[in-house]
Amino acid sequence: MSRKRAMIADTFCLKKRRRSAADAVTGDSHEGAADIRSSLQKLMTLFSRKLFNDSLPPVVLKHQLYSLHSDKTSVDKQLNELRASGELLMFQLGFDSEAFALVFAEDYRAKVLQGEAGRETLETVEKFLDKLIPGCSDLSFNKEKMLKEFLFTDSEITRLVKSGVLTVRDAGSWWLSIPNSGKFIKYFIKGRKAVLGMVKKSRYGEILKTELEGRRTTSHVKFQMKYHVHDIVGAELVECIQTTSGTLLRYVDGNNN
Amino acid sequence: MLSFLNARQSGLDDPVRLRRAESTRRVLSLELNHNRDVARVHGNGINTLDIEVIDGRYMLSGGSDGVIVIYDLENNSKKLQYSCKTVCTVGRSSRHVHKFSVETVQWYPHDTGMFVSSSFDKTMKVWDTETLKPAEEFQFDGNVYCHHMSPVARKHSLIAVGTKDPKVQLCDLKSGSRIHILQGHRGEILSVRWSPRYEHILATASTDSRVRVWDVRRASGSLFTLDQHNGDKSKASSEAVNTAHNGRANGLCFTADGLHLLTTGTDDRMRLWNSATGENTLVNYGKVVNESRKGLKFTVSRDCSPEFVFVPCGTSVAVYGLHSGELITMLRGHYNNVDCCEFHPDYQELYSGGKDCNILAWVPVLRQPDIEDEETNSKRGGTQAAVNPAFEDAWSSDEG
Predict the structure, then answer these.
(1) Residues in contact with A11: Cβ distance below 8 Å, sequence separation at least 6, in sequence order
(2) Is A4 in contact with B325 (Cβ distance < 8 A)?
(3) Do B139 and B126 meet the contact criterion of CB atoms below 8 Å apart?
(4) Which range, A128-132, B120-124, B177-181, is most confident?
(5) How far is CA A160 from CA A179, B99, B297, in A?
(6) Its family (chain A) (predicted)?
(7) Of the candidates B233, B234, B240, which has its C-beta nearest A97's C-beta?
(8) Which end of chain A, N or C, is less surrounded by CB atoms within 10 Å?
(9) pTM score, two decimals?
(10) Taking a C-beta distance cutoff of 8 angstroms, is the pair B73, B363 a contact?
C-alpha cells in the first residue's frame, strides 16, 4: 500500500527533509501567518453580508480553518499571533464551548461604529473599542478589570451591554460579543443542522463534497453551502475521506446533533 | 538505513539515534499480522492489559467476566506462525475469582511473582502468581475504577486506588494499611497514574472534570490542578474555570520520560500537559472520540523519535503524533469497541483488547526486500521463487 511506504520513507528521509525544511523554516513563519490570513479572507468572502443588511462584519469560525489546513496546532499558534498583534478578534459564541468566532479588527470597529451612529451610547463604545483593539485579546471581562484597568463606570458598562458589545456571562463578568449576532447564531445553527441532515439522509450516510456544494439549499440554509461545509468538516461532525472521485463526507454517528 | 548504520559504526552518531530511527520506522509500519495472534480465552470484553516490565514476556488481561489470564508473548517455537498461549488463568471456577468485571490489572513492578487486580465487586486483590491465590484483599465502599503502583518506587510500595468515592486511597502493600487518603476531588476518580520519573508524584482524573497532581509526601492537598486555559479565565464559562476538560476526565498517561502528561476527556479532546508546571501545551489533536463511562486506557510509545500516542477510538485504535497532534493512522481490526491498548517497548508491538473478546497484536511489518535484491537472487537461481513467464503480463506491477 502506497500510504505505508510514504510513512516509512519519512523517518529515513529525515536528513534530506531537514535540510530542505530548514531553508523553509526561516521563511515559513511569514508564509504561515500570511497563509492563515489569506485563508481567513477566503472564508470571509463566503459569508453572506446582505443577509443581515450589512450590519454584521464578516464572521468566520475558528474550526473552519481546520478544514483548510491540516496541522491544527500551527493554525492555533498563528491565530494567537494575529490576536496578539491586534489584527484579529476572537469571540466565544454561546452555543458551543469550542466554537470561537473570528472577525478582523478593522471590520469589527467599522461595523460597530456604523451601528452605533446617532445613538447616545456612541462615545462609550468608541472608548471601549480604543481600549480593546490594539492591546487586549481577552474573550471576557470581569468587573475589576472594567473598573480598574479600563476605568469605566457602572453606568458606562450598562451602556456597553445595551449596545451589544458586551453580553452577560455571570454576575460581574461579561463576554465580548458582536452586536446583532443573535440572528447570525440562529441561522447558523439551523443551517448546520439542515446540512448535516442532508449528509445523513443521503444514501449510506455519505455524499461527495462537490455534490453537496452543488445541491439546492432549502429555506433553512441561509448561508452559502461552502461556508457550512467548511464548518462541518472543521468541527469533525463528518468524516472526510479521499476517494478517486474527490472528497467524500461521511456522517459520523456519535454526534450529539 | 545504511547511512545510520555507517554513522553508528564510525562513531559519528550516538548509538541511540539508530535505535530511535528504527523504532520509529517500526511503529509507523504497525499492522495486523496473520502470523501472530493471542489465544482467545475471555468470554466477555477485555477491560485491561498489562505487560510486565522486566522481560516483556508475560501479559496480564482482565475481563468483564471477572476472569484474569496470563499470556506468554515470547515465540519459542521455531515457526513463524505463533499464537500467544495462556500460561494460567483465574477462571470462573476459582474460589477467589472476582465477582464482577475486573477493571484494572497490573504486574508488581519489580518481578512477576505478584500482580494486583481491582474490580467492580469493590475489592482489590493482590495475587500470588504461583498459587493464583490472593495474598491480600482490600475492601472498598464503592466500585473500584482503577489502581496503579509506581513503577519506579524504591522507598514506598503504595497502590493508589480510584473508586466511586471522591477520596483517592493509598494502600500500602508492606503493611496492609489504607489510612492515607488524598482529598480534593468532588467526583468519582476514573484514573490514577504514578509518574515514571518521580516516585512520589501521582496524577488523578475525576468526573468533576479536574485532573490533580499530588505529592504524596505532602500533608495538605494537591500540588496543582491542570487548567485547560492555562489560567486565562476569560476563555472559560465560569463553571469551567480550572478544569482540565469540558466533560469527565477519564484517561491519564504519562510519557515514558515523565515530563509530559496526556489526559483524555468525554468532551472528545485529548490534551498534553507539561507535568512539572501543569501548563497546557495546547497541542490540538482534534476530535478524539471518547464515550467511555469508565476510565480509558491508552498508551504512549517509547524510544521513538516523534513519540506516538495510541488511543482507543470506537472500534479502532488511533495513532497520533505526540507533539504535532496529527493523526498518523487508524488501526482497524476489532469488531467491537476497543477498551485498552498496551505497547511492548522492546519489540514495538501494540496489543489491544476490546468488547469483541479478542486481543489483537499489531506487529511491525518486516522490510520488503529491494527490487535489486530480487533480481540478483533470480540471476543466481537463488531462493526467491521466480515468476513463471507464462504468468507475467505487461500491465500489473510487481509491488504489493
Answers:
(1) B21, B24, B25, B28, B305
(2) no
(3) no
(4) B120-124
(5) 10, 62, 48
(6) Belongs to the STK19 family.
(7) B240
(8) N
(9) 0.84
(10) no
